[in-house]
């Protein structure tokens, strides 16, 4: 067991240290992690691709792996002619519902009788060993040109929505089989920002059962074929992304305008109009915002955050309980500061109002999509530009002068207590204090708040430069458009903090997405990297949280 773990670690470490072009690293990791026996697959790599004591020929391995994935990347032959009686049998057996989504027939997206596995072209002999390393000897024999060809024809076909079959062929669905004929369908949301619409109708995890659609007595869809497809799902997704990135390199970028009423007016005119609007009674303004929010939900759908809603006319509305009003007030002031002192693309603050226990922040829209929706499909060149842009903008942000609360070093943008869930996680809840901590006279006082009583020797050093900080840099709050940074949003945790705070908070929020964390590391290299501060924070996180 120990040798197996060691071999897998050796191969994965070699892949991650090879500085491969995106998404080649992800593709090769899939070869190991998604195989039927990762230890055996790692041994295959070490034995067949070694070119020295500690080196691996990843170039040849990658080329062969991409070719093998290509045999499972296909367009389903919906034009394939099947016997009418055979089609009727499949419809009857599967109960007139899609075996992937459970949906019934639709005029715009009809049910089709489709093969489970594609018709695979003969695989060249030199790849048979690789296929066996990935699927095992039994799986290698089960591909359609071998044992699967002897299956009852009914077991090789099933009833599925046409769009679901296409999504399956692109690696969006995986199957996990439980006891008996029960199975789970899971969606693999790798890629973006555009997803097949059928995924919106499919839960991330959906329980299904072949027994419920097999009362006819015919053989159920072949489980082993679905297991093979599931193992190839993530490799197929990354292969599709690889081709998408290659196509982007040969296409010119187009900057289509995003309509926003507020982009048509200069800052001075906007300020004048908002001042006039602020003279309208709060109750009436909020009624207008409720109407716009209702319209926005109908037109744009609900936001991924319950407290944020896109509105018509290029606006966003953020809502909170009045006890968190200061966090919205902090964001409102921050947007004013950032727009005054920097070139960072941020929303215009349009209104801040409280009424009847609720607070509302109205801002303009910034064009772009959340980085988290796009990061998989960004090329390495686009990531390089993103790093460059963020380095420049963060440099401008850190240069914003502190002109409030001179008696306190660490405060929010208004010179008041800080709103930050990392700070709150270090403290027992105090009803009188609420979720706002500080302000802090100096960094020593701030560091004491971060300490854990069980780890008295674990603390940050003092002496960092106190700079203006976003406080919540993550893939939700960074917007990109056509591969370039287009905006930074969600500033409610911002304020003046020690220089390492944005860096360690980015690692605190996102701990597993390696590509994003590499971006974060590159951004803050210009300030020394803050590796020691991150190590201290991780000690506190691991023990306390």
Radius of gyration: 28 Å
Structural class: alpha+beta
Low-confidence stretches: 144-148, 254-260
Count every helix, treating DSSP H or I runs of 4 or more residues as helices.
18
The tally of domains stands at 4
Strand content: 5-15%
- The coarse silhouette is globular
Q: Percent of residues in helical segments? A: 40-55%
Instruction: Characterize the largest beta sheet: strand count, sense, and whether it forms a barrel.
Output: 4 strands, antiparallel
Strand tally, please?
17
Strand order of the largest sheet: 6-7-9-8
Q: Please, what is the average pLDDT?
A: 85
First and last CA, distance: 30 Å
Organism: Truncatella angustata
Keywords: Kinase, Transferase
GO molecular function: kinase activity
Domain Aminoglycoside phosphotransferase: 321-528
Descriptive labels:
alpha+beta, 14% strand, 41% helix, 545 residues, 4 domains, Phosphorylase Kinase, domain 1
Structure description:
This protein is of the alpha+beta class and 545 residues long. It folds into four domains: 1-19 and 26-66, no CATH class; 71-249, no CATH class; 261-364, 2-Layer Sandwich (Phosphorylase Kinase, domain 1); 369-544, Aminoglycoside 3'-phosphotransferase, Chain: A, domain 2, CATH 3.90.1200. Helices cover 41% and strands 14% of the residues. The protein is built from 18 helices and 17 strands. The strands form six sheets. It has a four-stranded antiparallel sheet, sandwiched between helices. A hairpin with a 3-residue loop joins strand 6 and strand 7. The protein is globular. Mean pLDDT is 85; it is low at 144-148 and 254-260. This is Kinase-like domain-containing protein. Residues 321-528 form the Aminoglycoside phosphotransferase domain. It comes from Truncatella angustata. Keywords: Kinase, Transferase.
